[in-house]
Amino acid sequence: MTMVSFIHVAFILFPCFLSLRAEEIKSSEACEFPALFNFGDSNSDTGCMASAFYPEVLPYGETFFHEPVGRASDGRLIIDFIAHHLGFPFLSAFINSIGTSYRHGANFAAGSSTIRRQNRTVFEGGTPFTFEIQTQQFSQFKERTGKFFTQGRKNSFRKHFPRPEEFAKAIYTFDIGQNDIAAAINNVGKEDSHAVISDIVDYFANQLRNLHGLGGRIFWIHNTGPIGCLPVAMPIHNAKTNVTPVAGYLDQNGCVNYQNDMAKEFNKKLKNIVVKLRAEFPDSSLIYVDMFSAKYEIISKANKEGFVDPSEICCGYHEDGYHLYCGNKAMINGKEIFAGSCDDPSKYISWDGVHYTEAANRWIANKIINGSFSDPPLPIAHSCRAQ
Fold first, then answer.
1. What's the whole-model pTM score?
2. Which N-terminal stretch is annotated as signal sequence (predicted)?
3. In the structure, what pLDDT confidence band is assigned to residue 152 with cuts at 50, 70 and 90?
4. Is 42 a catalytic residue?
5. Peptide bond preceding 68: is omega within 30 degrees of 0, i.e. cis?
6. DSSP annotation string for 317-330
């Protein structure tokens, strides 16, 4: 090729290069989410159950908020760190009617929530706020807030709610399923767990379809964590286990294998349904986030990361076969016991045996927001680019 020919080809290709470069820059820009809507259970409940039933008591909330704020932790949850990373204020629970603003989204998550309906009352550890109810609440929220704009309400009303056109541009996050798996574990031997897990995932998919029908387009979906690694699941804290577990019952980190195996089965089927929904909704972005691996990593690296043994519980009394959960009082062996917190929650992974400390939540959030545990591997701030 002569020099003249080379220059001619380069001149022709240069605009194409600029066009490709522009597309590359455009695709690397962060998404401009106007709002965040969250659905889930106690892992992301920022005040629903506390507003609806009994408020949390100290020492819940002591680390960051210095008072109970409806979160099942000593401080912030993963959803709080996600909101901060995206530039949003803390999400208000949908039913929290005092001093709330929903301008940048709302939180429909509620403690004890499940994807499927459960035959339990609130006093039996159940909740009326199933995933189906949460999506219905969102539907009502969207419809009613839309009226503030279509009916010409004053700006004093409008400033507290998302604009109608912003629902399609918002990000929708999900962290639910752990309580469904816990219910399935409790019924091992009584029902076909494989069929139950498939049913749970189908329920989840149907609710995502409902949200898509309501305008949702960007979905950030957490799978469920290693439930067999929750300290209350471990034999060391389980009063029902009075003998040494047989070989293979526990893994190298003391987690209960069969419980984690059920979580893994749920996660595998959840990922498969997410792939199916991508084909159904080519106009949408669906990100699958492997929370199981992120949470298992902090558990397996606890000492290296500056935490105490992951089986240790910061808040509560779990000795001599007694379970007294965080913030409660009881007479045990003739002595009044208050289930208070540890001296330094930042050294613990488990806050109350079921939920994580703020320190652990921060560690996990920092791992997932950059896309390291996502499929496709996009940071959350770029998750609208998965279409």
1. 0.90
2. 1-22
3. low
4. yes
5. no
6. EEETTEEEETT-EE
